[in-house]
Amino acid sequence: MPAQILSGREVADQLLDSLKPQIEAMNPKLVIVQVGDDPASSSYIKQKLKSCEKVGLRHEHRHLAADISFEDLMKSVDALNEDSDVTGFIVQLPLPSHLESHAPQLIRAIDPKKDVDGFGAYNLGKMFLSPEFEHLPPATPSGVIEILNFYKIPVEGKHVVVVGRSNIVGKPLAVMLLNRGATVTVCHSKTKDLAHFTKQADILCTAVGKAKMITRDMVRPGVVIIDIGVSRDAEGLKGDVDFENVKEVASAITPVPGGVGPMTVASLIRNCVRAKERQLEAMA
Ligand code: GUN
Q1: What is the CATH number of the domain that holds 251?
Q2: Which of 64, 91, 168, 244 has its CA 20 to 30 A from that of 124?
Q3: What residues flank ligand 1, with Cβ below 6 Å?
Q4: Domain check: are 189 and 88 in the same one?
């Protein structure tokens, strides 16, 4: 029997709908900083702005020149930290090559209260401790957890294999799953015999960005597949999984597009609402 399709779009729409009353009541504002013109970033930002429109979230797209100096970029970050009208902001990654090595310093400069990407050490550290402290968790891993919850796919006691070890997806996702009782294996570009591990997965989460790298012979029948990777070819967006073939053996699978992507955006907006809630509490 072909796999159940796990529609992240549906989960995202429900989450966004549920946030509308709080957005109307608290009127938060999200700022998205883009440096340069990376086409993938422009496309992600377009999706984020579209969802802001849809839920009535105030938003601003600050588009900075690709050749901006690190000092000037830091000034923009400082100004956003200081601006009391700005609830939260993100700096879309990757940065242009001359700034890439400064990314950790830049992320460190973002006020944790406004770090709606959840990329800074404070928010990552809280996420590390326990699900109850996930106040501003990183948006993509958080979106994956929401999809699993929505479709009532338990993780406790399951063997989850995560392929990818980035600071914004693979590593935090592994920790969030571990904190929910999963047995987690993390594979990455240096892993020898990837298929040996992927074949053991009850749930396989891939975040690599290499089209069709997970083939039917690399998974066991009944596996749940969460495809987080995104790459582009002439036909459009592609996930990491050979969807057409793998869906014949998996029990459930997220499509690309329409899977994890919309949930990343919805989680970001939820973080913005949560940030506003805390900021108002702190003022009371
Ligand atoms: N680049 C790819 N995904 C993301 C994301 O979720 N946030 C930011 N800031 N940059 C990204």
Answers
A1: 3.40.50.720
A2: 64
A3: 90-93, 117, 139-140, 264
A4: no
Return the CATH number at 108: 3.40.50.10860
Known active-site residue 22: no
CA 5 to chain centre: 19
> 169: CA distance to ligand 1 center in Å?
9
Q: To the nearest whole percent, how much of the chain has pLDDT over 90?
A: 98
At position 35, the amino acid (one-letter code) is V
| C-alpha of residue 249 to centroid of ligand 1, in Å | 31
Q: For residues 284 and 264, give the distance between their C-alpha atoms in angstroms, rounded to a whole number.
A: 31
Q: Which of 113, 114, 115, 117 is catalytic?
A: 117
Distance CA 88, CA 232 (A): 29
Give mean pLDDT, residues 152-177: 98
* Minimum CA distance residue for ligand 1 atom 9: 92
Q: What is the Cα–Cα distance from 284 to 280, expressed in whole angstroms?
A: 6
pTM of the prediction? Answer: 0.97
Active site residue 14: no
Evaluate whether 265 touches 249 at the Cβ level (below 8 Å): no
